[in-house]
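Section 5.1 Outputs to date
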Amino acid sequence: MPTEKKRKIIHVDMDAFFASVEQLDHPELRGKPIAVGGTSDRGVVAAASYEARKYGVRSAMSSKVAKRKCPNLIFVKHRFERYKEISAQIRSIFLEYTDLVEPLSLDEAYLDVTYAKKGQPSATLIAKEIRQRIFEETGLTASAGVSYNKFLAKVASDVNKPNGMFVVTPDKAQDFIDQLEIRKFFGIGKVTAKKLNDIGVWYGGDLKMIDRLELTRMFGKAGNYYYDICRGIDNREVQPSRERKSVGAENTFSQDLFLEDELKKELLVIAEKVWERADRSGVKAKTVTLKFKYADFEQHTRSKTIEPYINTKERFITESLKLMKSEGGFVKGIRLLGLTLSNFLHEQEGEIGVQLVIEF
């Protein structure tokens, strides 16, 4: 086993969070297959209840496909302010036990309870207590993974989902990893998993047979990460604040758009939203990225970097329109447009930088 200093890490993941909040607030939806988002024919599912997941409905799935898989599916409009409200309530519970809370999204976070502020010295008992308090104070269930590093805690939280907990102790870690399917490794996506499967790597134990040099040859820097995690090594600390990398917005249209005037009109609406978010956050961005998706789901992005940074909304809109015009006309109907501002200016570059904390 690795000689790294053993921490006590908990990964808490709310169960079907958005969908569960809707079922909590609307009793008539309980026990029924529901999907948050995707309310139009061209929409996309943001979250699905466990009743819907039994039919194969998943987040990021088009509403058409979701409805085909589950004819009785009920679509519900999202209410992000409500989700943020409950998320903040949950985070306040976390902070009673430790200041080392790293939110990953509204519905999940890492907690380092090596030196907990209250409760039992056992991370397992703390996780149990936190899950109980979440249920008592919000009416929602959460799953948790407990281990000595972030990778193992994250993977463990999925083992007994929903409303469960799993603990990976240092002495059991290697056996757990050896028997873990590659597709369940956090940090290994579908493409990488298939590439590994193609060379006979299906489990953690198989991955451990490949040396570091070969993994870095195949996957670049990520190969070092794969080499370490299959040996239970992950020295990443729980970071209470996470720097935001981009601000963006996009829109999926109810009907495919073909005309330049129509696309320009929609792009201006999206640009207004993005600039408002960037302005509210206080960030100064250098790079603007245009994203567009054709009717057949073929997707492209185009980016441009401006020095020293994009200083006005007018400049942002101008550059966004230039990116769209640079395509020289779209060859097929457009179903989605999106804009993103990124590559933020920092203090060391002579400007006042703003570090953003992801809302929880």
